[in-house]
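fyi for ur records
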Amino acid sequence: MLCGVLLFGTLVLLDWGLVRLTVMRAGWWAALAVLLLIILTPPRVSAANGGLDSRGILTYHQVRTDRLVTIRVSEGVTPRLILTDTSGGRLVLDPRVLVANPLLWHQLDQGARRSIEQGILRCGMPALERLGRRIDDEVCRGILRNSSME
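which gave:
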C-alpha cells in the first residue's frame, strides 16, 4: 500500500512543481497508483474448515483439500501449484507460500491423503511428493541455521 501512496504523492508533487497538475491528471495518477497496488499486493493464503483460501484485493478462491481431484505444477518462470476440488473450486498458489508456512503445507498434505483414500485424487501425487521433499529440506535447513549447526 505504501508503494501506491508514494507513487501517487511523487507524481502529483512532480506535476504540481511543473505547474501542469489538473484534476484529470491527478485522477490518472490515482488510477495508476491503484493499479500498482492491485498488482503488487500478494494474495493471503489461509487454512480453514478443511480447505485453503486465497484472498487478494479483488479476488477470493477456495478449495477443499479433502476433496481434491487434481494437483498440477505449472512450470515456467514462476512455478505455480494448481489445485482443483470436486465442486469446481480452483486455487493457484506459489509453492513458496507452502515452504514459508509448514502449517499450510500440513493442511494440504493431510487433505490430499484423504482424497487418495477416498479415490477422488486422480493425478498430481508425484508433484505433491516432490514439493513435500522440498519443504522438508527447507524446514531442516532452517532448523540447522537457527541452531548454528549449518
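Strands lie at 44-48, 51-55, 60-64, 68-74, 80-85, 90-93. thats all i got for now
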